[in-house]
Task: structure prediction
Amino acid sequence: MQSLPAAEYTTKIFNPRTSKNANIIIAQIISIEREAFGDKAFTEKQILNDFYKDENTIILLFATSNDALIGFTYAKPSDEEHSSDPAHTRTAFIWDTAIHTDFRGRGLSTLLIETMDSELQHREYTHVEREASTKNGYVTHISTHYGNHIEIESVPHNSRYGEQVFFRIRL
Result:
């Protein structure tokens, strides 16, 4: 994986209620989402619904040279349907991570992961859960990044998004 100069990229916690450019940023997020997932992308309505819930955590990734939004990730408190934790009180589920095609393969998901983990810890979460695609190497990246913090790593299973692996990770 390529090493990244810290000054080239930055992450920010996003709250559309307090952002002056929320509509522009959300339009860019929708564009990145569609470019990444095609007909399986979340709809504008789904994204707007999730992004305007205060309990959800949204992290944006920018290229610092031109302040262009190039990626995002977001997490929601786990619910009974999406959690391996029966109490699911301190577990967040990462619903989506997408990076613009022109910036993939540079290790930038690490910046999103680290910022998300830090913010979730700040919000007193103890675990994060997520699905990761096997086809693009993301499973290997998650396994390597979290190492012994992984409590559950499922066998690959089919989903609407292709073959994926479920992870439960201790923060």
Q: What stands out?
A: The chain is about 30% helix and 30% strand.
